[in-house]
TrEMBL record:
This is Heavy metal translocating P-type ATPase. The chain crosses the membrane at residues 12-34, 41-60, 72-100, 237-256, 262-283, 568-587. Signal peptide: none annotated. Residues 629-774 form the Hemerythrin-like domain. It comes from the Bacteria. It is a multi-pass membrane protein. PROSITE patterns: ATPASE_E1_E2 (PS00154). Residues 122-220 form the P-type ATPase A domain. It is found in: Cell membrane. Keywords: ATP-binding, Cell membrane, Membrane, Metal-binding, Nucleotide-binding, Transmembrane, Transmembrane helix. Belongs to the cation transport ATPase (P-type) (TC 3.A.3) family. Type IB subfamily. It comes from Pseudonocardia xishanensis. InterPro entries: ATPase_P-typ_cyto_dom_N, ATPase_P-typ_P_site, ATPase_P-typ_TM_dom_sf, ATPase_P-typ_transduc_dom_A_sf, ATPase_P-type_domA, Cation_Transport_ATPase_IB, HAD-like_sf, HAD_sf.
Length: 793
């Protein structure tokens, strides 16, 4: 094969060869149908000669690099067909040779990409502060000590430290995290980040060439350049088949003294099962994958994916949604959740902040339409404020009442959960906080289980995020290793470390993932929402925003390669038998060519099986079952928010009312607690239990056929536990209604019921979403449970 420096030339030659050999074959077929047998033979002979010349060059080049491959067998076969005048067979071999070379050239083009998005994003100039003002200079003249002004939205051109006012940065290009970071005066700033707030000044600590972003570009280039050439399946088989074919042909010539026998052996040794069947299986796999939303750039990439044993995954945008989502609303005593969300969304609807968008989206999901605020002020890194319905509303990172017990409790829970809090104040007083996370993809857990089932032995997560949320995601998904706070250079080093142990796949979506994608044996980019650079660096691009397509891609690759190996093995085995028969003189060249064509047709038909889905690829559900899944998934979305009522009721049971009696007296448990208990009981009996019973009697029987009855058995057992706890809670409510209050001796058991129901229902909802609702592939990657966090707004 040609080297990397000549990839464009080899690609053009392969395309030209494919076009001319196909044209020669087609012209010969037309002439043959018109009765011009001589013209047909001439066209086919010309096509054979056209392929023979470059094939000889390729064989010589491979031998110079110490390799032998399928091209050597092809040259012998092409020459053999010319000798015995089997021109049609020669033309067919020529087309197949050209097709194989075209596939190889397409695979090699992946390694020659220069990550244009990385280069296009890199700044060329900088605004340098001078004694007389600010001047725009070429980036190459900037050195340590120069003061550089970075305007809003601009990319930081060099590494430096902040001078004067704080800087608000978007570091997603380097870390992959979608949240902004506030850097104080004298704090470090890396090139490649961008200004997310007002303009600021930095003092350069390095030249552009020695800065972080230039290093990212160099890493991507070096990683691509060090990618080893692909040794294709056909070449590996040809390594032993070539000497066998030569040995049999030479033996036939020596023992019989007939050149004809040797030529007959070479004719039946034509490697069409390698030139045709293996590529057909691989190309069929590529087609099959593309229909599932997976673009695989060439057969070599697909073969390496089939051999992978380790997968390295980015977190943000890959295992998580990449967008913060509201997962809870904490309120001050006596305040309703909607009274916190409505004013917050009203102010945030005019804010470009990533958290603001999540808050507005949550309000609209709940059917709350924000009102237009007045006098809106945005403080980058702090929050936004405005007037809504005549009241001053502030949304941001500061609560304004750090000493209040409920505020401390909310803050402590956020730290434990690794969540982000957006505090809401009205007229200066805190009324609540919106809890946000970057949620784990609903299909992530099921996808990783499927990957392990098909042979991936090691799953590793790399992320630029903090250690605490990264470890939580790793625990939830059962990953083998989690590496947090990883720079692009760290990611490349980690991928190379894994590559030294086994064939490694890297999955990512961000600009910061591009070097690691290029360094892996196979790079997979989440192309639906990922950066252009990550897609350019990857050998595989997922064109839909669904992680489960990754498992589909691995299954398709393994099945296609298995069929390719099977087709090649069967074809070569039959060819070996035919070679022995020809060597013994029982199979002349012409009948041998016909027999070889029959073998070719057989193995090609077998290779075409790769176009059909395998049994393990996708569960096929009846349309009625899909409609049930869609219905119950929508009910889950509506019911998830009601779980907070159970925890709020428990909180009222253990929190004394504002007019608490002396500590020596037993705490009162009637009033608000009893009202909340009635509300919780009504929620269970009127909404949750009917939903669970409908699932048990409608959804689970429908899933039993495609999944098997055991697949729903654990969920049925959970339904029974939910029913038991709900009945117990109803008994407590009835006793409290009869007495007009909640008896103190019942509080402990009532709390156990409430917390038990909350935990069981939350886990049950997550399990159903991961195991069942994701089978409804048209539903898309809906928002699911959240497990990660980031810095406060």
């Amino acid at each position: 094969m040609s080297g990397r420096g000549s990839v464009p030339e080899s690609g053009r030659l392969a395309a030209f060869l494919l076009a001319t050999t196909v044209a020669a074959l087609a012209a010969g077929v037309v002439a043959w149908f018109l009765g011009a047998a001589g013209v047909a033979a001439g066209c086919w002979a010309a096509g054979t000669l056209l392929a023979t010349v470059p094939a000889v060059v390729w064989v010589v080049s491979a031998l110079r690099h110490g390799r032998t491959g399928v091209d050597a067998i092809a040259v012998l076969a092409l020459v053999g067909t010319l000798v015995v005048h089997e021109y049609l067979a020669g033309a067919l071999i020529a087309v197949m040779l050209a097709t194989g070379r075209a596939l190889d050239a397409a695979a090699e083009r992946r390694a020659s990409r220069d990550l244009r998005a990385l280069l296009d994003r890199a700044p060329r100039t900088a605004r340098r502060r001078t004694a007389t003002g600010v001047e725009e200079v070429d980036l190459g003249v900037v050195g340590p000590g120069d003061e550089i002004v970075v305007a809003p939205g601009e990319v930081v051109p060099v590494d430096g430290t902040v001078v004067g006012a704080d800087a608000v940065l978007d570091e997603s290009a380097l870390t992959g995290e979608p949240l902004e970071t506030r850097v104080p005066a004298d704090g470090p700033v890396r090139s490649g980040t961008s200004a997310a707030g007002a303009a600021f000044t930095i003092r350069a600590t390095a030249t552009a060439e020695d800065s972080t972003y230039a290093g990212v570009v160099r890493l991507a280039r070096e990683a691509g350049a060090q990618d080893a050439p692909v040794v294709r399946l056909a070449d590996r088989v040809a390594t032993w088949f070539l000497p066998v074919a030569l040995l049999v042909a030479g033996g036939a010539w020596l023992l019989s003294g007939s050149v004809g026998r040797a030529v007959a052996v070479l004719v039946v040794a034509t490697p069409c099962p390698l030139l045709l069947a293996a590529p057909v299986a691989i190309v069929s796999g590529l087609s099959r994958a593309s229909r599932a939303g997976v673009v695989i750039r060439g057969g070599g990439v697909l073969e390496r994916l089939a051999e992978a044993r380790t997968m390295v995954l980015d977190k943000t945008g890959t295992l998580t949604g990449g967008r913060p989502a509201v997962v809870g609303i904490e309120t001050a005593p006596g305040v309703e959740p909607d009274d916190v969300l409505r004013p917050a969304a009203s102010v945030d609807q005019v804010s470009p902040h990533v958290l603001a968008k999540a808050i507005v989206a949550e309000a609209r999901r709940r059917g709350i339409e924000p009102t237009m605020p007045a006098e809106v002020v945005e403080e980058p890194g702090i929050g936004a404020s405005g007037v809504v319905d005549g009241r001053r509303v502030e949304v941001g990172r500061r609560s304004g009442a750090e000493d209040a017990p409920w505020v401390r409790a909310v803050t402590e829970r956020a730290v434990l959960d690794g969540t982000v809090l957006a505090w809401v104040r009205i007229d200066g007083g805190p009324v609540g906080a919106l809890v946000l996370r970057d949620p784990v993809r609903p299909d992530a857990s099921r996808t990783l289980r499927r990957l392990r089932a098909v042979g991936l032995r090691r799953l590793v997560m790399l992320t630029g995020d903090r250690a605490a949320p990264a470890r939580e995601v790793g625990a939830v998904l059962g990953l083998d290793e989690v590496r947090a706070e990883q720079s692009p250079a760290d990611k490349v080093a980690a991928v190379r470390e894994e590559h030294a142990r086994a064939v490694t796949v890297m999955v990512g979506d961000g600009l910061n993932d591009a070097p690691a994608l290029a360094a892996a044996d196979v790079g997979v980019a989440m192309g639906a929402r990922g950066s252009t650079a990550s897609s350019e660096a990857a050998g595989i691009v997922l064109t839909t925003d669904r992680l489960d397509r990754l498992a589909d891609a691995v299954l398709v690759a393994r099945r296609s390669r298995r069929i390719a190996v099977q087709s090649a093995a069967v074809g070569m085995g039959l060819s070996l038998v035919a070679m022995v028969v020809a060597a013994l003189g029982f199979l002349p060249a012409a009948p041998g060519a016909l027999l070889q064509e029959a073998i070719d047709v057989t193995v090609i038909l077998n290779a075409l099986r790769a176009l059909r889905p395998g049994r393990a690829e996708r569960t096929i559900l009846p349309e009625a079952t899909r409609e049930l899944l869609h219905r119950f998934a929508a009910e889950h979305d509506d019911l998830r928010d009601t779980l907070a009522v159970l925890r709020e009721t428990a909180g009222l049971l253990v929190t004394p009312p504002p007019t608490a009696p002396p500590p020596t007296a037993p705490p009162p448990t009637d009033g608000p607690a009893l009202v909340a208990l009635r509300r919780a009981d009504a929620l269970l009996t009127e909404r949750i239990l009917p939903h669970e019973r409908a699932e048990e009697h409608q959804l689970y029987p429908a899933l039993a056929a495609p999944l098997g009855p055991e697949a729903t058995a654990p969920m049925s057992r959970t339904h029974a536990e939910i029913e038991r706890l709900a009945r117990r809670l109803t008994a407590h409510r009835e006793a409290a209604d009869a007495a007009g209050r909640i008896a103190p001796d019942r509080v402990e058991d009532l709390l156990a019921c409430l917390y038990g129901l909350h935990a069981v229902l939350a886990l049950h909802f997550v399990q159903e979403e991961e195991n069942y609702f994701e089978l409804d592939h048209d539903r898309g990657a809906a928002s699911g449970p959240a497990h990660t966090g980031g810095p406060h707004r």
